[in-house]
Amino acid sequence: MFGGWGCGSFYSGGFWGMGILGMGIQLLFWIVLIALIIYLFRRIGSRVHTRGFTGQDPALDVLNERYARGEIDLEEYQKRKKELLR
Questions:
Q1: Mean pLDDT estimate for the chain
Q2: Domain map of the chain by residue range?
């Protein structure tokens, strides 16, 4: 009606105006946002699995795991822990 420039036709110029560019920018925004959320969840999740361990002595960590699973009794646990802490 106004030669293609009136009443907001700049933003609603169909697929060849800002419409396709706007769609592309919006799609890129959502892809980046979803990727960031997935990255953060994975990073937080990896910390949860290692929270109970000291990380200083792997042998002591294994001993604690075996005792927690019930593979060794209290006497065996205390004996081996005493040997490890020497």
A1: 78
A2: 1-51, 54-86
